[in-house]
């Protein structure tokens, strides 16, 4: 079984309402996961950090309740989201000095109930 929290490939999260996000950060939660959208640090974390709860199933793709998490496909499969992820990687490379440090990220995740 692939461990969702050790996968190094970008992860796509598809919510039951059809919204899709690529996870910039993902953490265990006692009842599911906490994930951060791409460019979360440029927006209000209350809008860009999400908690997904439900029964955890699968070994990739994974399902938590009615939310599906899978590895992001290539430009031919998930074109728009793959481009967003490319922009995110470029942004991170260019802003290493201003991207929040790990303790700050973990503190936000804990505020959302992450089990860190």
Structure explained in plain terms:
- The longest helix has 16 residues.
- Strands 4-3-2-1-7-6-5 form a seven-stranded antiparallel beta sheet.
- With 116 residues, it is an alpha+beta fold.
- The model has no long low-confidence stretch (mean pLDDT 93).
- It contains three helices and seven strands, in the order βββαββββαα.
- It has one domain.
- In total, how many beta strands? 7
User: Order of strands in the sheet with the most strands?
Assistant: 4-3-2-1-7-6-5
Low-confidence stretches: none
Gross morphology is globular
Order of helices and strands: EEEHEEEEHH
Radius of gyration: 14 Å
| Portion in strands | 25-35%
* Range of helix content: 25-40%
Q: Would you tell me the overall average pLDDT?
A: 93
| End-to-end C-alpha gap | 22 Å
How many structurally independent domains?
1
Number of helices: 3
Main attributes?
116 residues, alpha+beta, 7-stranded antiparallel beta sheet, 3 helices, 26% helix, 31% strand
Q: In summary, what is this structure?
A:
With 116 residues, the chain is α+β, with helices and mostly antiparallel strands. The chain has one domain (11-111). It contains 3 helices and 7 strands.
Question: How are the SSEs ordered, and which strands pair?
Answer:
Blueprint: E1 11-14, E2 20-29, E3 32-37, H1 45-48, E4 49-53, E5 56-58, E6 62-64, E7 67-71, H2 79-94, H3 102-111
Antiparallel strand pairs: 1-2, 1-7, 2-3, 3-4, 5-6, 6-7
């Amino acid at each position: 079984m692939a461990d969702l929290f050790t996968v190094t490939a970008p992860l796509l999260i598809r919510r039951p309402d059809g919204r899709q996000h690529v996870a910039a950060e993902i953490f265990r939660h006692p009842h599911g996961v906490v994930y951060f959208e791409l460019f979360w640090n440029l927006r209000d974390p209350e809008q860009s950090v999400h908690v997904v709860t439900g029964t955890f199933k699968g070994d990739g793709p994974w399902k938590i309740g009615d939310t599906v998490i899978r590895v992001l496909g290539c430009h031919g499969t998930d074109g728009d989201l793959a481009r967003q992820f490319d922009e995110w990687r470029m942004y991170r490379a260019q802003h290493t000095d201003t991207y929040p440090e790990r303790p700050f990220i973990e503190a936000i995740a804990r505020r959302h109930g992450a089990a860190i």
